[in-house]
Amino acid sequence: MAATIEETFQRPVGELLRGWRERRRLSQLELANRVEVSTRHVSFVETGRSKPSREMVMRLAEHLDVPLRDRNQLLLAGGFAPVYSEASLHSPSMLAIRTTLRRLLKAHEPYPALVVDRWWNIVEANAGIAIFTAEVDEKLLQAPINALRLTLHPDGLARRIANIAEVRSAALASLQRQVAGTADPDLQDLYDELRGYAVDDKPAPPGPAEVVVPFNLTHDGRELSLLTTIATFGTPLDVTVSELMIESFYPADDATAEYLRALS
């Protein structure tokens, strides 16, 4: 089971670094070559025989692709101050980010688009997501609205998704990779919850012409076919910004595009 934040702070920095190295499936030799230090030094850091400098913690974290939130935890465990800020999205310092996000979402209309945080809670959305929030249980629309729970819950979109087995399988696989990459206990809890939702159908194997899993949603008696993409900010220096994901939906056929334009 993943460690809590309190347990993480009590663990030495070398132990935490070893955990990230093993999670990335790297040997000490492979990591040492990437960081350009000796394997002996990596071993000494991991076992606590050598105390790494602030710069070494940062270099190791960079080559291990450790998320910014967890890099701050590594620094704290090593006795150093955190480097990366974590500002609320609604703080004055985030005005430029909020403005950019809202412009992106508005420009994507009439097609749905939303912004989620690390735990898939919706923090911004455009008018197009009205096709997702219609006919779902009100309890799923109470803040914070979780996009994955909204999609897969039996009282949410699941009952309107024609290919729910395929969508569920793809979503769980993606979330499982995120859990493995971050070791976040809250994401693990979300994964366990979503996996526990009862689904009668098993996903059919993809056809030879399929390259992505479509999102086939019934809305007002019509079946819409959508494709989805995920975008993130490049080179973020703030924890909150680094964890934002912009999910954009596109029509997979002309009929869906025409219908969504007519709705707007």
Structure commentary:
The N terminus is likely disordered. Strands 2-1-5-4-3 form a 5-stranded antiparallel sheet. Helix content is 46%, strand content 11%. The chain starts with a helix and ends with a helix. Helix 10 packs antiparallel against helix 11. The longest helix is centred in the middle third of the chain and has 19 residues. By secondary structure, it is of the alpha+beta class.
Report the portion of residues in β strands.
5-15%
Helix content: 40-55%
Ranges where pLDDT stays below 50 over 5 or more residues in a row are 1-6
Large-scale geometry: elongated
Q: Largest sheet, if any?
A: 5 strands, antiparallel
Entry summary:
The chain is an alpha+beta fold. It has helices at residues 5-10, 13-23, 28-35, 39-47, 54-63, 68-77, 95-108, 130-133, 147-152, 164-182, 185-195, 239-242, 254-263; strands spanning 113-116, 122-125, 215-219, 222-231, 245-251. The model is unreliable at 1-6 (pLDDT under 50).
